[in-house]
């Protein structure tokens, strides 16, 4: 990787902007394949269409910072500017046009609001400058192309014709997620799980969530029919238009179906002439089937995981799979009940979040856990799994 030139011919961007530029360059935001000029940007923001196809807001590059603003103000047509991330050159842009933008209008187009109490609005405003630049560019970001190749190879390996996409944070992976994936496999040759990879710091890292999800896929699902790939979850996917962009990206990655929950942000279910409709009924040019799945709950009368559409019992009999509440247990170091999270998944999470937690693990293990009589070393993950088995023992209750 080349170092950037230490002069005023460089634009300093972050990894999130780099990943977003790469998505467009690889054709994953098609029909949008380039940075828009002022005329195109205004038209898309007003009509929500580009080349006759739905696109929720303009695709522009307007990096923040006084240094960037000075460079853009002085930039001339056809001038080459370096794109720099963390001190390293990652691409170039040939300037076609520089134009002024209104950052508040920009965030309102993305999030549907410019209210500063909205965390996404605050974060995006910090990243936005007052000037946007357009022109031909190239970027060095191989992760997106690698994901495209992984999906192509997985389809070819099994001759998949029906390929479904699921956008998932799996934070954490719980039983309702598992049911959603299994249900999706019923009518698809291949499921591609796009595991969200955000750019904010989080103790539930992408690597930890991948480890847990991969364990489930490898051990409990048919071989070669579920593929987990990273999804660069940049700021453009954070607004109320998220589900539209999910559909566009899934289609361009080679999927012919997108599976989402009915409570997914941005679906906007409503009734029109006694028919349930959603945002997808107004989309133009996005040729992907959208399948909405009902919410899953555990019913203490049915004694199993059920759809809210099929269970005859009231909500007071239902245990919801609320990710935030399950996360709260894990953050406190508490094993979630196995009815919420598979014990092996909880063990993976807790052993990573609380390494070397127990002062004398082997003593605890052999005091509490039945064993064959052969002394063996055990990990914290093993201990959590066996402990959950004790929690599930009911002979004295």
Proportion of residues in helical segments: 25-40%
Looking at this structure, what is the CATH superfamily of the largest domain?
A: HUPs
Structural category is: alpha/beta
Instruction: Tell me what portion of residues adopts beta-strand conformation.
Output: 15-25%
Radius of gyration, in angstroms, nearest whole number:
24 Å
- Shape descriptor reads globular
Which secondary structure elements does this structure contain, and how are they paired or packed?
Blueprint: E1 10-12, H1 15-25, H2 38-47, E2 49-50, E3 53-54, E4 61-63, H3 66-74, E5 80-85, E6 88-94, E7 97-100, H4 103-111, H5 119-127, E8 128-134, E9 137-139, H6 142-158, E10 163-168, H7 175-185, E11 190-197, H8 206-220, E12 226-232, H9 242-252, E13 257-261, E14 270-272, E15 275-277, E16 289-293, E17 296-299, E18 304-307, E19 318-320, H10 323-331, H11 343-353, H12 361-368, H13 380-391
Parallel strand pairs: 1-5, 10-11, 10-13, 11-12, 13-16
Antiparallel strand pairs: 2-3, 4-8, 5-6, 6-9, 7-8, 14-15, 17-18, 17-19
């Amino acid at each position: 990787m080349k170092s950037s030139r230490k002069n005023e011919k460089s634009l300093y961007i972050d990894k999130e902007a780099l990943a977003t530029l790469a998505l467009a360059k690889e054709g994953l935001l098609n029909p949008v394949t380039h940075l828009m000029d002022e005329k195109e940007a205004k038209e898309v923001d007003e009509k929500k269409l580009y080349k006759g196809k739905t696109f929720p807001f303009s695709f522009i590059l307007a990096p923040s910072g006084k240094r960037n603003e000075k460079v853009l103000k002085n930039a001339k047509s056809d001038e080459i500017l370096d794109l720099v991330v963390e001190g390293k050159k990652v691409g170039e842009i040939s300037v076609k046009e520089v134009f002024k933008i209104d950052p508040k209008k920009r965030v309102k187009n993305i999030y549907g609001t410019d209210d500063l109490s909205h965390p996404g609005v605050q974060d995006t405003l910090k990243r936005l400058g007052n000037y946007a630049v357009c022109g031909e560019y190239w970027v060095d970001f191989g992760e997106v192309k690698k994901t495209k190749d992984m999906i192509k190879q997985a389809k070819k390996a099994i001759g998949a014709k029906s390929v479904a996409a699921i956008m998932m944070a799996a934070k954490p992976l719980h039983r309702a997620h598992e049911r959603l994936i299994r249900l999706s496999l019923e009518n698809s040759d291949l499921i591609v799980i796009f595991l969200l990879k955000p750019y904010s710091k989080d103790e539930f890292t992408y690597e930890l969530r991948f480890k847990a999800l991969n364990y489930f896929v490898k051990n409990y699902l048919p071989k070669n029919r579920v593929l987990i790939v990273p999804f660069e979850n940049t700021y453009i996917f954070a607004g109320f238009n998220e589900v539209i962009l999910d559909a566009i990206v899934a289609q361009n990655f080679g999927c012919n179906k997108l599976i989402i929950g009915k409570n997914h942000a941005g679906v906007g279910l409503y009734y029109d002439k006694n028919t349930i409709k959603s945002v997808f009924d107004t989309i133009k040019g996005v040729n992907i089937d959208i399948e909405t799945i009902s919410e899953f709950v555990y019913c203490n009368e049915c004694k199993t995981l059920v759809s809210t559409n099929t269970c005859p019992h009231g909500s007071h009999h239902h245990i919801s799979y609320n990710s935030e509440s399950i996360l709260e247990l894990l953050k406190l170091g508490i094993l979630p009940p196995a009815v919420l999270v598979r014990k092996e998944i909880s063990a993976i999470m807790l052993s990573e979040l609380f390494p070397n937690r127990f002062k004398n693990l082997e003593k605890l293990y052999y005091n509490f856990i039945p064993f064959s009589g052969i002394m063996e070393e055990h990990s914290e993950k093993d201990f959590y799994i066996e402990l959950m088995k004790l929690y599930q023992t009911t002979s004295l209750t």
